[in-house]
Design brief:
The complex is a heterodimer of chains A (398) and B (288). By secondary structure, chain A is an alpha/beta fold. Chain A is 44% helix and 20% strand. In chain A, the strands form 3 sheets. In chain A, strands 8-7-9-10-11-14-15 form a 7-stranded mixed beta sheet, sandwiched between helices. Chain A has a 6-stranded mixed beta sheet with strand order 2-3-1-4-5-6, with helices on both faces. In chain A, strands 12-13 form a two-stranded antiparallel ribbon. Chain A is globular. The N and C termini of chain A lie far apart (50 Å). With 288 residues, chain B is mostly helical. Chain B has a domain of 194 residues. Chain B has a two-stranded antiparallel sheet with strand order 1-2. The radius of gyration of chain B is 19 Å and the shape is globular. Classes of the chains: A alpha/beta (398), B mainly alpha (288). At the A-B interface, helix 3, strand 8, helix 9, helix 10 and helix 11 of A face helix 1, helix 4, helix 9, helix 10 and helix 11 of B.
Chain lengths: 398, 288
């Protein structure tokens, strides 16, 4: 409904502006945002939308974005692509050609962002991807695509470092991965990183999307006697895996799960079983940065987010808001809406935001961010890495 | 030894699958309606149990009755008010009708409850039974036993009560049943209501096992479909046999071929069965 209303309002606004004067129409900066607001990915799509909305409202409440001394209002044009990637590509094109979006936020995840990036490249529209991490998204030689997630291995490497240094008795690793783009990539990286640290990978299995039972995989896991269990999946998979591990009495010294525990729904749904589960994500509300963006400090961003939505922001929501803040900084720096100049400002960016330090590599993917490792301790996630924002030591099970 | 655990996993999972499928099988077999609402009915039952536990502390094993009753009322109304109007039309019409109703119900649940995954976390978890090398998860076994009791009750109702005999009569021959004085429309509504009752009760029992979200409804529906085709339509024992068969196939398939192939294997066996024995393991021909 929200999306329909927004699109309707946008269409109405477009009509009104067109009928008054051309000068008036120039006072709005339009950002196109194809999102999966319905369908399987809708929880993720709605999170991203919350981040974008917070940015747009905060920017407009502060008088809009100043371009060459003149204030512009931000308007985000949302179109729902119903979790259907081919449709995301069509929607991106429509946003550029019909809705005349000045800039684009990429659709959700690595797959859809990669698919849609071809369109924005062709039209020369600067595009920021808030939730695409895979290197394959950025190695296409495109000039107009920028991403706020570091490559996947930056989630894995600090973890293996902490575990292998922290407890030399951890030797046997079991990996259970959802057979999906990000989750499988993380599992493969984990396998490589574990081997590089001299750990023995005693199990490496994938499960199909839509799996409703992990009992057999966990029976196999039990037989492999792992010290470290590394499971990837989305929140529903990981809740079920955690529960079924407990059912069969599998309790390794270290249990790492990505990407569910970053959400509070995970701790709520697993209760005491969440304790000591470790994870990593690209951002965490406990990090502390002093930014030059409109939100300022991380604390101020958290407070603004909680005030509006009554929940603590997670990494996807923060990354979406950061995408907006970064776009705004680039536009202000460029002093124009000219897409090529804003693109150059993004490429040259080197500053700190509430989200963390922002500097994009030659491929357009952020290189400056240090993704935190965290662990559920006392029912709450606490940061154990990087040292600058660390809140507690990593706890090993018995 | 490990095969005993895999066998136990499969039997317990099969029991849950049977619970998911029995209501779907009843409606399909008796009314010849493929009720695509079934998955959403199960999810709605889970939400009843979730909120009953969160706000009133009612254990899901008790709220299964409440969820079942609520869903019975909803199912009765849906059949009496909507599906009965097109019940005589070709099966595709009722399929499209329940498909549309499912879109409405599922999206209504998304609006009301959001897509966030929740789960009932019992204050006193049931833990696991350790029988030598075999672990049996207490909540799954208890849910399975309760579902089995409900199913047995349904079976007795169908066999021994007047209404049950009328349902079987309608299943065997709609016209003849009408000629014998059976109010076919009312029986249709009761049957659909009973199917929804089983879905709601199963949903409540599953709320302590599976994460709850409207997004899960298609998974439940898919399993119900496979179980019915495997076991044979419209009979309570058929759903039980189909459920246990699917549980065992997935369990051993996941162990031998790896978890990523468990679903592939179950669908391959389904295809083979459709060629060799299209009426299912316990299905009977001639019930039209």
């Amino acid at each position: 409904m929200q999306a329909v209303r927004t699109v309707f309002a946008a269409a109405l606004a477009l009509g009104l502006f067109a009928s008054t004067s051309a000068v008036r129409a120039q006072d709005v900066i339009k950002v196109g945002a194809p999102l999966p607001l319905t369908g399987a990915l809708s929880p993720e799509g709605l999170k991203q939308q919350r981040g974008y909305n917070l940015w747009a409202e905060t920017a407009n409440a502060a008088g809009g974005i100043k371009v060459g001394g003149k204030p512009y209002k931000v308007e985000i044009v949302y179109v729902d692509y119903a979790s259907n990637t081919p449709r995301a590509v069509q929607v991106a094109e429509r946003l550029i050609t019909e809705d005349k979006a000045n800039f684009l936020f990429a659709p959700f995840g690595s797959g859809a962002a990669k698919a849609a990036s071809g369109v924005s490249e062709r039209y020369g529209i600067p595009t920021i991807a808030a939730t695409a991490s895979s290197r394959e998204v950025y190695d296409q030689g495109y000039k107009f695509l920028f991403g706020t997630f570091t490559p996947n291995e930056t989630l894995i490497d600090p973890l293996t470092e902490i575990v292998s240094k922290g407890d030399p008795a951890v030797k046997r690793v079991a990996i259970l991965a959802r057979n999906d783009l990000l989750t499988l990539s993380l599992a493969n990286l984990m396998q490589a990183a574990a081997k590089a640290k001299g750990l023995e990978v005693v199990m490496m299995e994938r499960y199909a999307i839509g799996t409703m039972d992990h009992a057999s995989a966990i029976t196999q896991m039990r037989g492999a006697k792992p010290d470290w269990v590394f499971a990837t999946g989305y929140i529903n998979d990981l809740i079920l895996i955690r529960k079924q591990m407990a059912d069969q009495g599998v309790s390794p010294k270290v249990l790492t799960m990505i990407a569910g525990p970053a959400y509070k729904e995970f701790t709520e749904a697993t209760g005491p079983l969440a304790e000591n589960v470790s994870s990593a994500s690209w951002w965490h509300p406990a990090v502390r940065y002093k930014g030059v963006d409109l939100f300022g400090t991380t604390e101020a961003f958290n407070a603004a987010f909680e005030k509006k939505y009554n929940v603590v922001p997670d990494y996807a929501e923060a990354s979406a808001a950061a995408a907006g803040a970064i776009l705004q900084l680039a536009i202000e720096k460029a002093g124009t809406l000219d897409p090529a100049k804003v693109r150059d400002a993004l490429a040259a960016m080197d500053l700190v935001t509430f989200y963390g330090p922002v500097k994009f590599g030659p491929t357009g993917q952020i290189t400056s961010l240090e993704p935190p490792v965290f662990q559920i301790q006392g029912g709450k996630p606490v940061v154990v890495f990087p040292a600058a924002v660390k809140q507690a030591d990593f706890i090993f099970g018995k | 030894m490990i095969y005993l655990q895999v066998l136990a996993n499969g039997l317990v999972l099969g029991g849950l699958y049977a619970a998911i499928a029995v209501g779907f099988s009843l409606v399909w077999g008796v009314l010849n309606v493929i009720n695509l609402l079934h998955g959403s009915f199960i999810v709605l039952g889970s939400y009843v149990a979730f909120f009953a536990y969160a706000y009133f502390g009612i254990h899901p094993f008790l709220s299964a009755g409440i969820a079942g009753a609520a869903l019975f009322a909803l199912g009765y109304v849906v059949q009496a008010g909507l599906v009965n109007r097109v019940i005589a039309a070709p099966v595709l019409i009722t399929l499209i009708l329940t498909f549309g109703l499912d879109l409405i119900l599922n999206n209504a649940m998304l609006l009301a409850f959001s897509a966030d995954y929740r789960k009932v976390n019992l204050a006193h978890p049931l833990g696991s039974l350790e029988l030598g090398p075999i672990f049996l998860p207490g909540d799954r076994v208890a849910a399975m036993v309760l579902a089995f009791l409900l199913t047995a009750l349904l079976y007795r109702v169908l066999r021994d009560s007047r209404i049950g005999r009328a349902i079987i009569a309608v299943r065997m021959d709609r016209e003849a049943a009408a000629l014998m004085g059976v109010d076919v429309k009312r029986i249709n509504a009761i049957t659909f209501g009973l199917g929804a009752f089983m879905a709601g009760a199963a949903g409540a029992l599953l709320s302590i096992i599976y994460p709850i979200s409207p997004l899960n409804s298609s998974l439940f529906l898919g399993k119900a479909f496979v179980v019915c085709v495997l076991g044979g339509l419209g009979s309570v024992p058929g759903a039980m046999v189909g459920g246990v068969a699917l549980g065992l196939i997935e369990s051993f398939g996941a162990y031998w071929l790896g978890p990523e192939h468990a679903i592939t294997l179950s669908f391959s066996i389904l295809l083979v069965l459709l060629f060799v024995r299209p009426s299912g393991i316990l299905g009977k021909r001639g019930y039209e």
